[in-house]
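Notes to self, Riboflavin biosynthesis protein RibD:
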Amino acid sequence: MNHEYFMNLAIKEAKKGIGKVNPNPLVGAVIVKDGKIISKGYHEFFGGRHAEIMAIDNAKKNNNDIKGATMYVTLEPCSHFGKTPPCAYRLVKEGFKEVYIGMLDPNPLVNGNGIKILRNNGIKVQYGILEKQIKELNEIFITYITKKRPYIALKFAMTLDGFIATKKYDSKWISNEKSRKFVHKLRNYYSSILVGSNTLIKDNPKLTCRLKNGRNPIRIILDEKGVFENKKLNIFDEKGRNIIFTKKIIKDSIKNTEIINEINIKEIIKILYQKNIDSILVEGGATVLSSFLKLNLVDKMHVFYSPKIIVNGVSPFRNITINSIRESIKFKCKKVKSIDDNVYWELEACLRE
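result:
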């Protein structure tokens, strides 16, 4: 059997959970018997069925006999009681003959234990199939579990001469319409979105996901002086949660909004991790973008280059001082593509000491 072919199908299944499972991983499963696919499944939403269970349920719903079958699953089956019972024991109970796994679960509650349960019960196990692709698929989950902080991505549109706005903070629009539509896929992918007070007041953004069946990210605002108070802002009229970090003591409660008196970014990241927020899309402005870079708190950048020149403007890196090429902040290109007249770069941060 072509193990990579079936694992690729499991990866496609896993992607169906994007925007629904955070802070859990994206997981897909495929059941094969006598060389034929008899069922598929994926982790459907946080607290919902795991991929293995959904695949088993689908098989039984169609009266397929799964005893002696083979399962392909992107992530090691869980071995602990969480929101659902352990999948590893269910695979034993159902009589699977072989299980092929994409990657081990980095969660210390599972790591290697799921495989041990399967092998101790006579099931043949092999792991590491398409591991690189599956780790990329679960970059958010892996960072959240191993680094105990949210995965952090910056997003901005930039002119050819390196500006995200004019000197008067006009930025509508640097990117084209298709690029702006693509941004809503990012907002669905990441569980929260973060901006500073300048962006909040000057642009009055909605900070929503406008994809059909998409989810609004949790809106996080860094507003040291509390300038949002008593202002009519779009974020207060949209569905979803707001978390505002400020020094100012705010006495009045605001619908769907939590006020936290903290402005240190590293402490804010710890608070968001404790709230089970596994990922942040930082959308600006320049002060906020450069602050995350200075603190070495960036995992990825999504950059939309536009063929426009404005000569003088606001740089997303304006608060960073670098005196030599050797000191430069380095990224590697994961993806580059044209979106009409824009060029989109997906850049992954290189390790910094």
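- The mean pLDDT is 94.
- The first strand starts at residue 28 and ends at 33.
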